[in-house]
Specification:
CATH superfamily: Rhodopsin 7-helix transmembrane proteins
Helix content: over 70%
Transmembrane segments: 20-40, 52-76, 82-112, 133-154, 184-205, 226-250, 262-282
Shape: globular
Number of strands: 2
CATH topology: Rhopdopsin 7-helix transmembrane proteins
Strand content: under 5%
Radius of gyration: 22 Å
Protein name: G-protein coupled receptors family 1 profile domain-containing protein
Domain G-protein coupled receptors family 1 profile: 31-280
Structural class: mainly alpha
Number of domains: 1
Subcellular location: Membrane
GO molecular function: G protein-coupled receptor activity; odorant binding; olfactory receptor activity
Distance between the termini: 67 Å
Length: 303
């Protein structure tokens, strides 16, 4: 009887958390879909490297939000699936968890080229180069996924793939060294990205000091964009430490563990992925005017 009361007491907070999560995910997805529609509607965005990369972050973030939300629902209601199917789902999720931060780093480099190497911007950031860059982004982003799953394939028995489990990346971790390998790999990857962002910021800052008039205004805007990219990367980096925090809390209290895990999901999965629309969708004047036009069903004319 006490166990049933405890379960009933726990269910309401879970239901409330689920409702809050669904509302946030739906809001972010609707905003992202509106921005994606704006990108595809206006042809001038299709030839600009920064807008193409921006669209890539929107698509990858929307997909990641949708898939991770499904896993959250399954976890809350304790729904299980066979491990082989979970492997496929998590392989895609592991890829797109990394695609956004790698794309942000590339967008920072594009900003650096536009401000510090304006004469070579057209050559280095052409549409063709951007398409090649998207392939490279996916190639680099797949490295952690390949390493994590390779370690799992070596450790798991064939019978394990037929078992039913609550789908989570944690079910692929059999040994402590696998967890350390995953952490080291992500930390190294994000360290390289942070170095690139700091390098670009310092270079753009030097140009900002020497610039004047309109150039100074444009350069300062570029500096703010790089800073926002850096903040997004910081949130993504903290996300990598969440499993260690959750593991420590799990030993103390399961209910506290669930609360901490929910907080981490909102702060370090959802929040970084709602910043992209703010950075480019609302701060960029050209894109913002196009967005207003399509969001108002054409009543607000394009400039």
């Amino acid at each position: 009887m006490a166990a049933n009361n405890s379960l009933a007491g726990d269910f309401l907070p879970r239901k409330v958390k689920l409702i809050i999560t669904q509302i946030l995910v739906m809001i972010f997805l609707c905003i992202n879909l509106l921005l994606i529609m704006t990108f595809f509607k206006k042809e001038c965005f299709h030839t600009s490297a920064r807008y193409i990369l921006f669209a890539l972050t929107l698509l990858s973030d929307s997909f990641l939000l949708f898939m991770s939300d499904i896993l959250v629902i399954w976890a809350i209601f304790h729904l299980t699936i066979q491990v082989w199917l979970c492997v496929i789902i998590c392989a895609v999720l592991l890829l797109y968890v990394t695609v956004t931060p790698v794309t942000l780093t590339v967008m920072t480099l594009e900003c650096y080229v536009a401000i510090c190497m304006p004469l070579r911007h057209g050559e280095l950031c052409s549409t063709r180069s951007t398409m090649h860059c998207i392939l490279i982004i996916h190639g680099l982003s797949s490295v952690p996924c390949i390493v994590i799953l390779s370690a799992f394939f070596v450790s798991a028995s064939l019978s394990f793939y037929k078992k039913y489990q609550i789908c989570s990346v944690e079910i692929f971790i059999f040994h402590t060294w696998q967890d350390h390998l995953r952490s080291a790999l992500y930390q190294f990857q994000f360290l390289i990205m942070c170095i690139i962002i700091v390098f670009c910021y310092v270079k753009i800052m030097k140009v900002a000091k020497a610039a004047s008039g309109e150039n100074k205004k444009s350069t300062k805007k570029g500096l703010r964009t790089v800073l926002l990219h850096g903040f997004q990367l910081l949130l993504c980096l903290i996300q990598l430490w969440c499993p260690f925090i959750e593991a420590a809390v799990f030993k103390i209290s399961f209910s506290l563990f669930e609360d901490v895990r929910y907080f981490n999901y909102i702060m370090f999965y959802l929040a970084p992925r709602c910043l992209s629309p703010l950075i480019y969708g609302l701060r960029d004047e050209v894109f913002f005017h196009a967005l207003k036009h399509y969001a108002s069903f054409g009543f607000k004319g394009l400039p």
